[in-house]
Amino acid sequence: MSARRRIEEARLALMMLTRLPVGRLAEPAPSLGQASWAFPLVGLVIGLVGWAGFTAALSCGLPATLAGFLAVATTAWATGALHHDGLADFADGIGGGRDRAHCLEIMRDSRIGSYGAVALILAIGIHVTALSAGTAGIPLLAFLLLGVASRLVMLALLIWLPPARTDGLGRDATSQSAGAMVPGGVLVLLLAMLTGTGGMAALMAICVAAFVVAALARRRIGGQTGDVLGAAQMICEISGWIVWAAVAP
Hints:
The protein is an all-alpha fold. The chain contains eleven helices and no strands. The chain has helices spanning about 5-15, 30-35, 40-60, 65-80, 80-95, 100-110, 115-130, 140-160, 170, 180-220, 225-245. Helix 3 runs antiparallel to helix 4 and helix 5 (about 80-95) crosses helix 11.
């Protein structure tokens, strides 16, 4: 496949997972399934955005807590809060659904219920607290690692979990080959090695969190949806930051 085609697929992945301008895609445009291999690469951009917000706040003399809030705010802006929305819908569906059909019905509803509201409050609070645990700053590589690894989880769920619906992002972005994980997987391993003990420990936490989300989604709704992917990204990234705060110097 030509390098130009790969670039177009990466641009489509960036278009789908962020609100950042990428221009018009050349025709014929790739499908979302073809572009899903590049989901982890989008984490490089989002990780850079979060690190820039966090570091800028610390450089201005702001407290670490405010720096954490700014990092979360900048990444939420860059993604259009896409993954936050997925987490809220997933929590509402899994928490309030009586059965598979009812869970999916709730998850499709754009309104946020009590489970979703509590999930967002906890997620943002824990995320900010983990980021602000140390005042010495967090290296760029850590932001890149967690941004890439949490989106590699999204790709893994697309490959190994069946779509729970016959439509939607989870169906459209489904990838048929485990080979799609190779670029993101190599990048994650490289970043984990460069970040040392903290990075490797955070990566292990992400793997555990991914397994828990995947098992819950499989049991309750029979597979993955776009909301499951968004929830998995959020839960895995925050789990990684919790462990980073506990282990990294």
